[in-house]
Amino acid sequence: MELHSLKPAEGAVKRRKRIARGQGSGHGGTSTRGHKGAKSRSGYSRKRAFEGGQMPLQMRLPKRGFKSPNRINYFVVNVDKIGSLCEKYGWEEFSPEVLYKAGLIKKSDSVKILGSGDLSKGVKVKAHAFSAAAKTKVESAGGSIEQL
Q1: End-to-end Cα spacing for the chain
Q2: Of 147, 118, 115, 145, the residue nearest 133 (C-alpha)
Q3: Of 81, 84, 95, 100, which is closest to residue 126 (Cα–Cα)?
Q4: Which of 26, 96, 100, 120 has CA 20 to 30 A from 106's CA?
Q5: Residue pLDDT, tens place only, 6-62
Q6: Helix 79-89 crosses helix 132-140 at what angle (to 10 degrees)?
Q7: In the β-sheet with 144-147, what is the strand arrangement from edge to edge?
Q8: What single DSSP character describes residue 51?
């Protein structure tokens, strides 16, 4: 066996199909596209949700619900989480600016304090919204509340 005598196994290499190169190629005439119709034309592309003329799924399903443009999505923090975060980072004041600097929220996020858990020490808490339970728990622990 020599390098110049190497060749691929029988049937491993197929010839390229040369389309639209005359009748003698076997792929001339309609160029393997069949006769007439949109699919035989150049520039044809089927729409993404096209189902052969049947009513598409997204049109068969009913419209439901409503998304309010005025909805405010809050970043929620529970009272017990305030205590653990203040101990972890050594904060005397809990506010959205402090959370942003710690990389926990985005600059544009609104913060809401909820009343799950207990607070061990008094902390000055600033937020965009408070639940009634959170207000009482923060104030009973000796902290103060400021709504932004």
Answers
A1: 85
A2: 115
A3: 95
A4: 120
A5: 999 999 999 999 999 999 999 999 999 999 999 999 999 988 889 989 999 999 999
A6: 50
A7: 93-94, 124-127, 144-147
A8: B
